[in-house]
Design a protein that fits this description.
Family: Belongs to the EamA transporter family.
Number of domains: 1
Low-confidence stretches: 1-18
Number of strands: 0
Structural class: mainly alpha
Largest sheet: none
Order of helices and strands: HHHHHHHHHHHHH
Protein name: EamA family transporter
Number of helices: 13
Strand content: under 5%
Keywords: Cell membrane, Membrane, Transmembrane, Transmembrane helix
Shape: globular
InterPro entries: Diverse_Substrate_Transporter (IPR051258), EamA_dom (IPR000620), EmrE-like (IPR037185)
Main location: membrane
């Protein structure tokens, strides 16, 4: 008897749930999908940071990715039979990049305020946007977003900043740049979210050794498992699925510029969830980044 999936009709006269979900996602502009993904992943990061009092960052990463892999793997069920070697290479590379990006970012998050960590990490996608830009107007928005990043970063607070955290954030930014390119490649080679499911499983395998060793028996606590489930949904399943859908419908460099909202969303979630109060200079940076994102969204609509 075949296993039930989201694409199986419950009733022959009713629309398939999988088709309904895809239709709903397709009805949202790609820029809207990116914004939803941004706030989802930052809310998940805020809840994850609260777990650092009970688990080390690497254990929280494993909990998040493992939960996400279980959920999306059960829904998407990637088929490995018949895959070309290039499909394997893209899927494995995507999964390893996800693992490294999350490990380095969570280590930075443990040492820096949330808005600062994301601002420094944003140098990765900003570099992708600059490298891929072909229009002068795009460079204006990139420059405005870059100004916001500089204002958010703790260059004037070096005495209290964790340079180890900054190094982790820079490494996460490099992984983020690779993630943008590999997720687009996975979206073109794998149908639906099967590429994401495959990459999540690879990522969980990569993170498992360090996560299990650092977390130990604490990973089996029911309350931590439930929080990890929520973090996995908010930080992995929901945003990655939305981003893959958006990347199929928009240029990679526009996606990179729109991600300039990440520091703004992180700063806002840091205030609401973690009580990390922003200074006036940081609020100015948020305005710069929001203006750059709105400018690119209008440019995409005109085109």
């Amino acid at each position: 008897m075949p296993a039930f999936t989201l694409d199986d009709p419950v009733d022959r006269g009713l629309p398939r749930p999988g088709n309904l979900l895809r239709t709903a996602a397709d009805s949202i502009p790609p820029s809207g999908l990116v914004l939803l993904a941004i706030f989802s992943v930052q809310l998940g990061a805020g809840f994850a940071k609260q777990l650092f009092t009970a688990l080390p960052p690497s254990a929280v990463v494993f909990l998040r990715i493992a939960m996400g892999a279980l959920i999306i793997g059960a829904v998407a069920r990637p088929r490995l039979k018949g895959m070309a070697w290039r499909d394997w290479a893209v899927g494995i590379g995507f999964g390893v990049t996800l693992a490294l990006m999350n490990l380095t970012f969570y280590e930075a998050l443990a040492r820096l305020p949330m808005g600062v960590a994301v601002a420094i990490e944003f140098l990765g996608p900003l570099g992708v946007a600059v490298a891929a830009s072909r229009r002068r107007l795009d460079l204006v928005w990139v420059g405005l977003a870059g100004t916001g990043v500089v204002l958010l970063a703790p260059w004037g607070e070096s005495a209290s900043a964790s340079w180890v955290g900054i190094a982790f954030a820079l490494a996460a930014g490099a992984c983020w740049a690779a993630y943008i390119l590999l997720s687009a490649a996975a979206g073109s080679r794998f149908p639906g979210t099967t590429g994401l499911a495959f990459a999540m499983v690879v990522s969980a395998v990569v993170v498992a050794p360090v996560g299990v060793v650092s977390g130990g028996a604490d990973l089996l606590q029911p309350e931590l498992l439930m929080i990890g489930l929520g973090v996995g949904l908010l930080s992995s399943v929901i945003p990655y699925s939305l981003e893959l859908n958006a990347l199929r419908r928009m240029p990679k460099h526009v996606f990179g510029i729109l991600m300039s909202l990440e520091p703004a969303a992180a700063a806002l979630i840091g205030v609401l969830v973690l009580s990390e109060v922003l200074h006036v200079q940081q609020w100015v940076a948020v305005v710069c980044i929001v203006a750059a994102s709105l400018g690119t969204t209008r440019a995409v609509r005109r085109r």
